[in-house]
Amino acid sequence: MTRTYPKALWSRYADDGLVHCRSVKEAQEIKLALEARFAECGLQMHPAKTKIVYCKDANRTGTHDHTKFTFLGYEFRGRYVKASKTGNLFTGFTAAVSPAALTAMRQKARRLNYRNRTDLSLQGIASKINPILRGWIAYYGRFQPSAMGPLYRYINKSLVAWVRRKYKRFRTSKTRAGAFLQEVSRKCPHLFAHWQFGATGVFA
Asked: How far apart are CA 164 and CA 160, in angstroms?
């Protein structure tokens, strides 16, 4: 890439690569060149994952078969963003946690099965899940942190399920269990890592 396409910015992590091109023609040329180079090495680019993507936003309004892609757990696509100076919304081509990454995080949280750990206290659950949550937040919450909302809501609803199993007085009422956790989050906003980012409003 440095020798043959010095003006094409690119990045790589392990076997995932991303090349920034200035035109469809350039993208097609580089794609063919990479396919040929891979073949020389006895390798093949992934037929489904390797594609040319048009970074559609407020300034690039054309059409293309592909207008989004996933790289390192982030989904890059056009989405509404707020201008820092004016506060106006516009369409920017930006990154946020991908749907697949959100699904994987929810699945891992489910496997921890803390909703059924009635032998633990809330503090005990927090001590087990907070290190994992902090890692997710540090990585996926860096861009468009609001996109982490579905994960936070899932964790909060799992905590509601735990409360209903733990305490008999809440067993028949999801609303009262949610109100109980709402009060806990008000008194101890730093108990769970995601509560520190204001994710305390959905317990029902």
From this structure: 6
Go through the chain and tell me how many residues it has.
204
Q: How is 21-87 classified by DSSP, letter by letter?
A: -SSHHHHHHHHHHHHHHHHHTT----TTT-------SSS-----S--EEEETTEEEEEEEEE-TTT-
Reported as type and span, the H/E element at residue 131 is helix 122-140
pLDDT digits (tens, 9 = 90+) for 47-78: 888 999 999 998 898 889 999 999 999 999 99
The tens digit of pLDDT for each residue in 87-100 reads 888 888 999 999 99
Rg of the chain over CA atoms, in angstroms?
A: 22
Does an H or E element contain 112, and which? helix 99-112
- pTM, full prediction: 0.86
Do residues 122 and 187 lie in contact, with contact meaning Cβ atoms separated by under 8 Å?
A: no
